[in-house]
Amino acid sequence: MANYVAMARTNYFKVKDVEAFKKFVETLGDAELIEDTQDGEMLYGIIFDEQGIPSDRFYTNDAGEEVEEEGINFPALLAEHLVEGWVAELREVGFEKMRYLIGLAILVNSKGQRREVHLDDISKKGKALGEHYTDCSY
Questions:
Q1: How far apart are the C-alpha atoms of 118 and 33, rounded to whole Å?
Q2: pTM of the entire structure?
Q3: Spatial CB neighbours of 90, under 8 Å, sequence gap ≥ 6
Q4: pLDDT tens column, 57-89
Q5: Residue 20 is inside which H or E element, if any?
Q6: Which pLDDT value is given to residue 138?
Q7: Domain parsing of the chain, residue ranges
């Protein structure tokens, strides 16, 4: 049996409240906060080591119990932290043995608007380019 392994990261962007953003990143499992200074501004990003773009998060409730929230809309949650006018890019690459190679990029802005590109979108172009085309998987 093969396991899906994914690596993901974001670009750097400006956040509204640094402390709130740091707390948010702590809820994302093995996510790592990254920082960079560009044009004199402190920018932030996230690296997701071997988990890909998060689909759940963890936090402690008011009773002190650890809670797992499943099925989160990570791009929407991230958008809440962005300074107006900033765009975050989430980029994920992954594989399951060599049967499936996955690539995905999601852009989200401070208003929560999204654009997505999937590596699998190339299949449509391959089928339009010639008579004979097979998907790059098995």
A1: 25
A2: 0.86
A3: 8, 9, 10, 53, 74, 75, 78, 104, 105, 106, 107, 108
A4: 888 888 989 888 889 999 999 999 999 999 999
A5: helix 18-26
A6: 65
A7: 4-129
